Amino acid sequence: MLKNPLDRVAGAVIVLLLISITIVILRGDQVGVQIVSRNPADGADGVGTRAFLALTFSEAMPSRALDDLVSIMPLLTGTLRWNGAAAVFFQPAQAWQSDTAYTVTLKAGARSDRGRELLREVTWTFRTGHPRVVYLSPATSVGDLYVRDVGVAAAPQRITSEPYGVFDFAVSPDGKRIVYSATRDKSGARDLWVIAPDGSQRERIMTCDEQVCQAPSFSADGTRIAFQRHNLIQGVLGKSPGPSRIWLYDFTNNTFVALSGDSQELGNMPRWAPTGEKLSYYDPVNDAVSIVDVGTGDKVQLPSVLGDSGTWSPNARELIYPDLRALDNGQFNQMLRADLVDAVITQVMPLSNTNDASITWSPLGSMIAFTRQRTGASGATGGFMAFGPQIWVSTPQGESAHPLTDDPGFTYGGLSWSPDGVWIVAVRNNLQMPNPKPEVWLVRSDGSQVVRLAEDATIPAWLP
Description:
There is one protein chain. The protein is mostly beta strands. The protein is built from 1 helix and 36 strands. Among the domains are: 33-40 and 51-128, Immunoglobulin-like, CATH 2.60.40; 160-307, Methylamine Dehydrogenase, Chain H (7 Propeller). The strands form 9 sheets. A 4-stranded antiparallel β-sheet has the order 1-3-6-5, with no helix packed on it. A 4-stranded mixed β-sheet has the order 2-8-7-4, with no helix packed on it. A 4-stranded antiparallel β-sheet has the order 11-10-9-36, with no helix packed on it. The protein is globular.
């Protein structure tokens, strides 16, 4: 019996489809699994020293697919973290060295979930940039953001021009974004903006009507910020910020949400951990440093009365924060170290007649820098402050403590350790002058060099 012509056509189409599928499968096996994208790109220049190395594959990969297959020269160790099944990030154990060419090699042999191999070795190179510092200037009037190269004879670059000034800012871990808060107008409302380090791609991300939004902090992966949000409250002399809550903004979908669903839960000074999902902030209701895992919602609190949310270790295992401790002759700011894995709080150093603050960890976590102020005999509560705070360094356990500066007529604060571990940036004020203008200074971490970077400037941060 003859088949219907339509049946013959349908049969021919099915045969052709089967042949096509077979060819695709065979061709796929011949080509193997592919790298769809890589960041930094081959030949990239000026890469940030805190940038993540990222690869995206054409197929889903098992979590151990790249074990012992990735190498980086000059040698740099770190951790591979998968984002879904096809994208992987390499998080260095320390910052990339500045002004350095790196070669990344992925050996052949990695297999996808479907069993296909990476058939050929893949190699690419990129070069990091040199360290730069972002700061706010002028500090004594309406200020804007400036970027200044370190170790290069070049004028600072102004990257913002806000009529009512920039209030504060944060730099993303990869150095590609700067989020800053800026006063909008005479109403006092303060919005959040994002801008590239060269001054391009300026965009308002949070319009804070009748509110003040400020104190941004980037998550470890750079996709979110945490920030303070205050309602403006009318008073006798005008409007002023009321109590603040912590909010989160997500760049991937341009959404924002309160950290807590409880509108009575207040918080200041959010600081995201350098790795993972933990976030610290100060809880003024309970007089405590709160540490919350944003992913799970788990929270612990560390009693403290000073209002500082602490400084994270590079591996996010520890948090050092200042608190008041009493001696016979007064109360003094002392550093406490919280081990969040073993749930232990210890003093960094024995109690002394000093005030310690402005703590910053070295990139490897082996040292900390902080400011130490010697005080008069009557102590910090009502006593005479005899000397300006100086820059000190020690191990996180308080060992090998020694000063890097000894200028009692000057105060140092706002410390931040450079990603390559060479410099500590600080704000310096002259106590011997009436109405001094703050300056941004660089101090070598071994104490061998002190350099003024900018006059009438404040809030320095490293641009990796």
